[in-house]
Amino acid sequence: DAGITQSPRHKVTETGTPVTLRCHQTENHRYMYWYRQDPGHGLRLIHYSYGVKDTDKGEVSDGYSVSRSKTEDFLLTLESATSSQTSVYFCAISETGGTHTEAFFGQGTRLTVV
Amino acid sequence: AQSVTQLGSHVSVSEGALVLLRCNYSSSVPPYLFWYVQYPNQGLQLLLKYTSAATLVKGINGFEAEFKKSETSFHLTKPSAHMSDAAEYFCAVTKGDSSYKLIFGSGTRLLVRP
C-alpha cells in the first residue's frame, strides 16, 4: 500500500469553526490532491498541489484552502465549517502529472459538521 | 470537457454470474480512462486503466474493460462474481490538461447475492 496517512480519520465539529485535515505521504510523490465524496456525486476535486507551495483550485474549492510547505504534507482547511461540508474527504497522490499516471488514495476522513 | 456517466447506481448479481458495470465518457481529446474500486470504509484502489495501448484492458481480481470509441464506452466486466467483489466501483477520466485531475463518475454499488 502507498504510504498515505490521513488525520484525523473521524471528526465532528460545530458550524462556524475552522477545521484542518492533514495528509501525510512517505512516497515523495510530487502531486497531491484533496477530494470529497458525497452520495450520488462520486469524488470531486477540491484542491491539488503540484509541488511545495504550488497549489491550484479544483471544481469545488469554495470554502476550502490548502497549504503545502513540505513535500510530504498537504493540509486542507475549512475556514468556517458549514453543514454542506459534511462529507468524506480523501487525499490522493501521484508521482507525476501524466494523464495516465496512477493515483493512490488515503483511507479517508469522515467529517461531520453539526 | 471531459466527463463520465455511470449507468445504474446499484447493480445486483448472483454469485457466479457475469458482472457488467457501465461507463460512458465524453471527451474532446483521446481519453485516459480508469476504473477504481472502493471497499467499505476504505480508500479507492485502481482496478485498471486504458492508455490507448490496447482496447481490451485486464485488471486485478479478474476484471477487464473494453474501450469502444464508436460507443464512447468503457464498461467493466467480470465473468463470474464472487462475494468479495461487493464494493463501489468508480469510472474516471483525466481532464487532459497538464495536471493529473481525475474526473469521477457517480459510482455503482455492486451487490453480490449468495
Can you give a write-up of this model?
The complex is a heterodimer of chains A (114) and B (114). With 114 residues, chain A is mainly beta. Chain A is 0% helix and 57% strand. Chain A contains no helices and eleven strands. Chain A has strands at 4-7, 10-13, 19-25, 31-38, 42-51, 54-57, 64-70, 73-78, 87-94, 104-105, 109-113. In chain A, the strands form two sheets. In chain A, strands 2, 4, 5, 6, 9, 10 and 11 form a seven-stranded mixed sheet that branches. In chain A, strand 4 (31-38) and strand 5 form a beta hairpin. The radius of gyration of chain A is 13 Å and the shape is globular. The model of chain A has no long low-confidence stretch (mean pLDDT 92). The termini of chain B are far apart. Helices cover 0% and strands 54% of the residues of chain B. Chain B has strands spanning 3-7, 10-14, 19-26, 33-38, 44-50, 56-58, 64-68, 73-78, 87-94, 102-104, 108-113. With 114 residues, chain B is mainly β. Chain B is globular and about 45 Å long. In chain B, a hairpin with a 7-residue loop joins strand 9 and strand 10 (102-104). Classes of the chains: A mainly beta (114), B mainly beta (114). At the A-B interface, strand 4, strand 5 and strand 9 of A face strand 5 and strand 10 of B.
Summarize the structure.
The complex is a heterodimer of chains A (114) and B (114). With 114 residues, chain A is mostly beta strands. Chain A has strands at 4-7, 10-13, 19-25, 31-38, 42-51, 54-57, 64-70, 73-78, 87-94, 104-105, 109-113.
Query: Most extensive interface: pair and counts?
Result: A-B, 29 and 25 residues
- The count of strands of chain A amounts to 11
How far apart are the termini of chain B?
Answer: 41 Å
Looking at the structure, what is the overall shape of chain B? Answer: globular
Assembly level: heterodimer
Task: Output the number of helix runs of chain A.
Answer: 0
Q: Give the SSE order of chain A as H and E letters.
A: EEEEEEEEEEE
Main sheet of chain A, how many strands, which sense, barrel? 7 strands, mixed
Structural class by SSE content of chain B? mainly beta
